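Write out this protein's structure.
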Amino acid sequence: MKNVTHSFVFLGHWPSAGSFGFNTDILATNLINLTVVIGVLIFFGKGVCASCLLKDLLDNRKQRILSTIRNSEELRRGTDEQVEKARIRLHKVKLEADEYRTNGYSEIEQEKENLINATCNSLEQFEKYKNETLYFEQQRAMNQVRQRVFQQAVQGALGSLNSCLNTELHFRTIRANIAILGTMEWKK
């Protein structure tokens, strides 16, 4: 770092060819830079003045602050109203609590008894529903068992019939059924 600084210092001491060279005087350089920047700003920003921009910025900031204050005031009023409502409600609740204390616990005991009775009734109904459900489930299970037994019996009968039937017996059964059907036609 020291070498770089020394090289710039040496550049400042070189004799320049004309008027171009490095200026190592910081105060003079800053003053020149500020003059150039202000000149460019004035030239390119003819219609815009710094005080106008600053005034607009300050006015916008002032408006935001005022609107924030207004909003805060409205919120404060709203919370004051809510606090007042809460106080009124608290007062009513305290009065109701005092009324319950003065009336005693008879209403609570009555409600407790009603609740117990309602619970007993509900339990009885649940017991009744449970018994009915059990009965229906038993009936359904018995019907399913009956159907299975019937299906097995039919399958067993068909199996034994198929094993016992031969073609001659089969033809004899068909002829007998045809004869029965023939007699039924004559009766009509």
